[in-house]
Specification:
The complex is a heterodimer. Chain A is an all-beta fold. Chain A has no helices and nine strands. Chain A has strands at about 10, 20-25, 35, 45, 60-65, 70-75, 85-90, 95-100, 100-105. The chains are: A mainly beta, B mainly beta.
Chain lengths: ~110, ~120
């Protein structure tokens, strides 16, 4: 079955830039989406169609794509950004797939 | 304002069938390019997509659970129902329903419903 691969964890100090990657063979042909999930809460859509930001999402969150890898970048990380982040896309037949999640720790 | 809320049993026994209802407001499931999905998350683990029903009645299921899942909608009641048969303790999870829009992703989520499978 198709998989999206994320690093289990990323750590950054406040004010630094965090980059979370997501790799998958179908990513050149399928859009990617990013979700933030804080403990005990439902996920929140942070990025859609690779690089678009929904209204209300801070500008420090951005998305990019290069080949089979998409990246969520958080510039000027704040303590409140500490959370789990999930990428989501679709396989070649359009079925939804989530990545394994990345725990962002703000040191 | 779009809202979704999951409802159903909090505890089911092994081999039973789980039935969850997602009741939503603020949109119509007869509007083009709109859908409602079910996504679950076992305690401490990652999100797992289960099923998606579209405005045009099409349905898609996770390949790994396809034989156990059924998703239906009642447009007049603004509800989407998920059934998962032959429940096992590994199906213990928080089950979310989410609003889906083509090329916009899952932009609204319910609060989630924890379902425990135990005898």
């Amino acid at each position: 079955s198709y998989e999206l691969t994320q690093p289990p964890s990323v750590s950054v100090s406040p004010g630094q830039t965090a980059r979370i990657t997501c790799s998958g063979d179908a990513l050149p042909n399928q859009y990617a989406y990013w979700y933030q999930q804080r403990p005990g809460q439902a996920p929140i859509l942070m990025i859609y169609t690779d690089s678009e930001r929904p209204s209300g999402i801070p500008e420090r969150f951005s998305g990019s794509t290069s080949g089979t890898t998409v990246t969520l970048t958080i510039s000027g990380v704040q303590a409140e950004d500490e959370a789990d982040y999930y990428c989501q896309s679709a396989d070649s037949s359009g079925l939804v797939v989530f990545g394994g999640g990345t725990k962002l720790t703000v040191l | 304002q779009i809202t979704l809320k999951e409802s159903g049993p909090t505890l089911v026994k092994p081999t039973q069938t789980l039935t969850l209802t997602c009741t939503f407001s603020g949109f119509s499931l007869s509007t083009s390019a709109v859908g409602v999905a079910w996504i679950r998350q076992p305690p401490g683990k990652a999100l797992e997509w289960l099923a998606l029903i579209y405005w045009d009645h099409n349905k898609r299921y996770s390949p790994s659970l396809n034989s156990r899942l059924t998703i239906t909608k009642d447009t007049s009641k603004n509800q989407v129902v998920l059934t998962l048969s032959n429940m096992d303790p590994v199906d213990t999870a928080t089950y979310y329903c989410a609003h889906w829009v083509a090329v916009a992703g899952f932009d609204y989520w319910g609060q989630g419903a924890l379902v425990t499978v135990s005898s």
